[in-house]
Amino acid sequence: QSLENPLGKRGQELHPWFIRTRSFQAMLGKSGGSAGVDDEYAHRSMDGFGAFILGRNMFGPIRGPWPDNNWKGWWGANPPYHAPTFVLTHHRRDPIEMEGGTTFFFVTNGIEAALEQAKLAANGRDVKIGGGVDTVRQYLRAGLIDELHFAFSPVVLGQGEAMFAGIDLPALCYRVTEHQATEHATHIVLSR
Hints:
Radius of gyration: 17 Å
CATH superfamily of the domain at 48-60 and 77-145: Dihydrofolate Reductase, subunit A
Mean pLDDT: 91
Strand content: 15-25%
Structural class: alpha/beta
CATH topology of the domain at 48-60 and 77-145: Dihydrofolate Reductase, subunit A
Distance between the termini: 32 Å
Low-confidence stretches: none
């Protein structure tokens, strides 16, 4: 992961299914984009959430203490969340208010504290765990995720973190509740 490759080498090849959709184009304030199954999943992936939780790598490539307050995330002045967004970190930082309704809050006391704060901020709406892999794994192991959507793109990458290594999904009561393939992705939803 780097500024040039925020998703790792060739990581952008994972998202053409999403970028082509009407929902993504609308997030950018543009018209157009494709309709259909991919757009339905894209819309569901961002709509109706009252708060988000991200791992620190999803916020930026900075490791260790914050060197300064200049870095404000990968997305520029108007991030796609448009809701309170809680970033898991080991290093304190003041909240950052962005355009479009996103405020980043930095949580240093663990996943349960982040979830508690996000639920309060969501005001009865759902909370989305936005990744990365380690963050999702922590919430899975703690039994704190009700539903997961995976979009598998037809691309082979060389490295990455293993999402399910050491996690027994059936023992955690997850089952496949949706699966649909399109030209650009295979969508699988796990629920419990």
